[in-house]
Amino acid sequence: MSDDHLASPGEVTRLLHALGAGESTAYDQLLPMLQAELHRAAERLLRRERPGHTLQPTELVHEAWLRIADGKTPDFASRQHFLAVAARAMRHVLVDHARRRLAGKRGGGALAVSLPGELASPAPPEEILALDEALERLAVHSPRLKQVVEYRFFGGLEEAEIASLMGVTTRTVQRDWAKARAWLHQELAQGPR
C-alpha cells in the first residue's frame, strides 16, 4: 500500500464505520492501511523493553487487534479513535506479558520510570507494571491525564492528533502531558504500594 493511500483519513474512517456496521470486507481493506501505523507504534513500545523481549511488533499488533475486537463488532468514530483504542490495547498486552514474565516475583523499592517524548531506554517488566499501576491511580485523579499518557506514550500519537481526538487544544495536551509526567514521576518515586 502506498503512503498516499495510508494518508487518506476519510477512507480509513469510512472503512472503520463499515466494519462497525458488520461489513466483513472492510477488515481486509482496513488492516493494510493501519498495519504500518500500528507496527510503528508497536516498535516504539518494544524499544523500551529489555533486550531479548519475546514479543515482536507484529505479534503485539495482532494481540492488540484481538483485544480490540474481543468477539464484538468494533465501533470507531475515526482513525484517531481507533489508534487510541489500539494504544490502550497494546499497553494491556505489554502489562499482561510483564505479569506473566514476573510470575509473582515483585521487588521492593522505588522504580525509576521516565516518560520521555521519544522512547529510547529499555524498561524491565517491573517498570511496566509500576507504570500501569500508577496510570490506574492517575485515572482516579484525572482520567484525561491518563488518556493523554496512553495516547502519547503507548500509542505514539502526536499532540495535534491527541487534541483532535479529545476535543481540546494542542496547548491543553502539552500542559496535560507535562502535568501527567510530573505526577507519575512523583508517584513512581514513592515506590510500589
Query: Quick one: overall form?
Result: globular
H/E element order: HHHHHHHHH
The rounded distance between the terminal residues' Cα atoms is 47 Å
Uncertain spans: 1-7, 107-122
Helix/strand class: mainly alpha
Write down the overall mean pLDDT: 76
Percentage of helical residues?
55-70%
Gyration radius, rounded: 17 Å
Binned strand content: under 5%
Number of strand segments = 0
H/I helix tally: 9
The main β sheet shows up as: none
Q: Overview of this structure, please?
A:
With 193 residues, the chain is mostly helical. Helix content is 69%, strand content 0%. The chain is built from nine helices and no strands. It is globular.
Descriptive terms for the model:
single chain; 193 residues; mainly alpha; globular; disordered N terminus
In summary, what is this structure?
The chain has 193 residues and is mainly alpha-helical.
Can you lay out the helices and strands and say which pair or pack?
Elements lengths: L2 H4 L2 H12 L3 H24 L9 H13 L9 H24 L22 H17 L1 H12 L4 H8 L3 H20 L4
